[in-house]
Please model this.
Amino acid sequence: MERKKQIAAIAESEEERMLLVRVCDRLERAREREVPAATAFLSLREQALVRQLLPQCAFFGGTDGAERAVAFSLPEYLTREDYFDEDGPIACLRVRFYEENSLTHRDILGALMGLGIRRDAVGDICLHEKHCDFFVLSDLMGYLLDNLTSAGRQHLSCERIPLSQAEKTPQKLREVRVTVSSLRLDAALAAAFHLSRGAAAEAVNAGRVAVNSLTSCKSDRLLAEGDEVSLRGSGKFRILALGGETKKGRLALTVGIFV
Model:
């Protein structure tokens, strides 16, 4: 009963509540039985919520640093490397196409959805000039190899590759140096996105701002180096470094704007 109360307190929708119930039940039962178990792919927000509920569980998306990841629980006798081997719950598919930069993330995802694949069965989609590597639940691999033949207007050739050979999309950050009156959320948000302090506070109060993937409704929340802040409809930034105090008594920050 205590677990249900915890979930009800943090879930923002019935769909999210049901997801958290399923994840917790699956992982807790596996832990009690001392067997391995993994969930479907979770978004960053879903991972953050699961981490609050089950601090002992771990996450892996097929490669280190993946954004979408499964939550998993392993008995003491099994390592992550052994569990996520070629017979593990995650597989990587490489699709090749012939015209450079002719497909987008949306094209690949649309082709998968068109085949009836659920969003939570797909992990990160890593797009490159003439190929794309993406992670899926392993039990879908045979179906995709047989049926994923096109995306957008491009013909695709598909092969399964080891997780270790997957090529991640380079993460691009545009560094910007700003000064703020304090490390409050509204102050950093205003500086990074060129908003008035009032507009930034209003966005926070409206639930449009997330810190480290969780909605934050406190304008006076203090940020720290490494925190990631997103504003719905505007983008996301990471606090890369805290500088010293300027001559005018303001704090210097280096932020990385995701591009």
In short: Helices lie at 2-10, 14-33, 44-53, 80-83, 105-114, 141-147, 185-193, 197-205.
